[in-house]
């Protein structure tokens, strides 16, 4: 009798344990990129709205190419997707057919499409350039926080102008562009308080002809140093033989004797961090801002190359001193995302 009672209690306890286990399984969250470590090479896809010739997407692409060449990832990409609705279709096709571990790209004009697709594929890590925040469980965001080297380029421009007028040609007056232009202007003002700054927005992310035309108009208005926030400005400076600053990447090769420097965005720290998180199975949606700053190697001032010998040594020394102060946290370049105006 006593043995039967023990057996019945055992059976009851076993049933209770199995019931609780089934409840826990039912309540468990859907699989996400954090589910398990990855032992094989990661599959990465790049989805770019503009041609990779455009520096913004080109920087992301270059970091992913580097990771592929180092044997860390398998990498495919599509460029020049545009903003007319193709991004969502392409992302869905990639997610369903190629099943990558990570998709990198730029959102902005495709913001809603990217977020819709990411929500439907929680097992894939979506890592996109965006002015908005991350979205759980799998959409991380980044941006180009290169306002610090943009300030240093402004210092150089303010010290190099002979006419007292410099020009800036930007894409759209959005926060991501405004903070670079404002930093450039403030750097110029530090060295040359009386400098005049012409600012033109072409209302396009990639229209080299329009950017060149805007730059030539600024040159006609007296600008003798230019900041090429958009692709196409360097061509105008080259035609006129004027100093010019690139953007996003080291663009000295476009005009080796005239491109003084560029605020450089390095996506490698961001890419390396994301790869390590996905590889370890601990990826979560994050704002990856810090990895695009000077402190973590995500932003820098491009080398002067063969233009350095033509620059005033005292100006170079002043810029180098300020650069070191930024690296050491002793000088802060304020983030101003208000629309810049022409400065007189």
UniProtKB/TrEMBL annotation:
Segment forming the signal sequence: 1-30
Subcellular location: Cell membrane
Pfam family, one: Bmp
Membrane topology: Lipid-anchor
Primary localisation category: membrane
Keywords: Cell membrane, Lipoprotein, Membrane, Signal
Domain ABC transporter substrate-binding protein PnrA-like: 56-279
Top-rank taxon: Bacteria
Coiled coil start-end: none
Gene Ontology terms: cellular component: plasma membrane
Family: Belongs to the BMP lipoprotein family.
The protein, known as: Basic membrane lipoprotein
């Amino acid at each position: 009798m006593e043995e039967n009672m023990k057996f019945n209690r055992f059976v009851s306890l076993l049933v209770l344990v199995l019931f609780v286990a089934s409840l826990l399984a039912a309540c468990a969250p859907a699989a996400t990129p954090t589910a398990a470590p990855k032992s094989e090479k990661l599959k990465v896809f790049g989805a770019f709205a503009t041609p990779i010739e455009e520096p913004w997407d080109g920087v992301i692409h270059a970091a992913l190419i580097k990771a592929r060449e180092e044997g860390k990832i398998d990498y495919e990409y599509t460029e020049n997707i545009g903003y007319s609705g193709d991004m969502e279709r392409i992302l869905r096709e990639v997610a369903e057919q190629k099943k990558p571990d990570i998709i990198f790209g730029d959102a902005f004009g495709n913001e809603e499409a990217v977020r819709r697709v990411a929500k439907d594929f929680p097992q894939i890590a979506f890592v996109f350039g965006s002015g908005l925040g991350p979205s759980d469980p799998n959409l991380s965001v980044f941006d180009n926080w290169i306002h610090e080297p943009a300030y240093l380029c402004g210092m150089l421009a303010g010290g190099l102008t002979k006419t007292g007028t410099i020009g800036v040609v930007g894409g759209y007056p959005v926060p991501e562009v405004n903070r670079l232009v404002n930093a450039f202007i403030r750097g110029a003002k530090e060295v040359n308080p009386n400098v005049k700054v012409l600012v033109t927005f072409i209302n396009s992310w990639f229209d080299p002809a329009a950017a060149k035309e805007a730059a030539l108009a600024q040159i006609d208005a007296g600008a003798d140093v230019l900041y090429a926030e958009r692709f196409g400005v360097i061509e105008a400076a080259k035609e006129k033989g004027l100093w010019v600053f690139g953007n996003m990447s080291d663009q000295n090769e476009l005009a080796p004797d005239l491109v003084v420097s560029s605020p450089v965005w390095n996506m490698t720290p961001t890419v390396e961090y994301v790869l390590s998180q996905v590889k370890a199975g601990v990826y979560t949606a994050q704002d990856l801002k810090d990895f695009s700053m000077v402190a973590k190697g995500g932003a820098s001032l491009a080398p002067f190359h063969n233009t350095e010998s033509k620059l005033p040594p005292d100006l170079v020394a002043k810029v180098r001193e300020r650069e070191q102060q930024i690296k050491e946290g002793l000088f802060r370049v304020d983030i101003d995302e208000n629309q810049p105006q022409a400065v007189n």
